[in-house]
Design brief:
256 residues, alpha/beta, seven-stranded mixed sheet, six-stranded mixed sheet
């Protein structure tokens, strides 16, 4: 079955969750995409911030409630990461919210030490693979992109690898190159959703959100402009390519 994926590339209101939720609601309502999956950036309610004590929500907080509302309204899964507090720990947590209100979650594994993220947040310990419309999907967060072992598609466990990000313009070549590399080495579709604009730390973001074919070429590449884009991915095309080019059968076995 085909999968319709909608990516939302936009500026973010710095550390203003209510304003960002309102903004995303308005953009999605205006675009009214007929889709199966809506992908928002990393920390889409705040921007990439280390002010977790001031910004964190409980898991069952206003943003999860908002995501449930949007998923139901658009009859699509909606995903993106937010700052969550659990006990004494803070997490950069991706929510995967379904139209029926159920959800799964993934905590960012690789914390960006160059911004001291590892001093503020607790790393996740388990990867998440979820099912949607007959597709197996592995959602990851930003800096995870640099670590191929964590992204490894052992035994074709997933069909689509997904990254939500706040990836600065200064390293956009690495972003674009690694998205393609992850698609090629894992023989899977890859979706990368980044933000645009400038954050409260004066870091500019060039977007460069993309959808990559398993052979490594771009099906969709954005510019620095904000926008909502929907693309249909073909599962049969993926299955046929894997059958014709079963590189996974020669993969090295290892455990993490």
């Amino acid at each position: 079955m085909d999968l319709r994926v909608t990516i939302v590339q936009t500026e973010l209101h710095w550390q203003d969750a209510a304003a960002n939720r309102h903004m995303f609601s308005a953009r999605l309502a205006a675009a009214a995409p007929a889709t199966d999956l809506i992908v928002l950036p990393e920390m889409f309610t705040t921007g990439f911030s280390m002010s977790a004590p001031d910004l964190a929500e409980e898991t069952e907080g206003p943003t999860l409630a908002w995501m449930r509302q949007e998923a139901k309204q658009h009859q699509a899964v909606i995903t993106g990461s937010v700052i969550v507090k659990e006990g004494d720990n803070y997490y950069n947590r991706l929510f995967w919210v379904r139209p029926d209100g159920t959800y799964a979650a993934y905590d960012k594994r690789h914390l960006f030490r160059m911004a001291n993220e590892h001093h503020t947040y607790t790393p996740g310990q388990e990867r998440l693979v979820v099912e949607l419309q007959g597709w197996q999907i592995c959602p990851l967060v930003c800096y995870d992109l640099r670590f191929p072992v964590w992204s490894r598609n052992t035994g074709n466990a997933y069909d689509l690898l997904l990254y939500v990000a706040n990836w600065p313009k200064a390293r956009n070549l690495a972003w674009s190159t690694l998205l393609k590399a992850r698609a090629i080495e894992n023989v899977a579709y890859v979706v990368g959703v980044n933000r645009v604009g400038t954050d409260g730390n004066d870091h500019p973001y060039s977007g460069d959100s993309a959808i990559i074919h398993p052979k490594g070429y771009a099906l969709l590449e954005t510019t620095e402009a904000a926008g909502i884009h929907t693309l249909t991915l073909n599962k049969q095309e993926l299955d046929d390519f894997r059958q014709a080019f079963p590189a996974h059968l020669d993969a090295d076995a290892f455990t993490l």
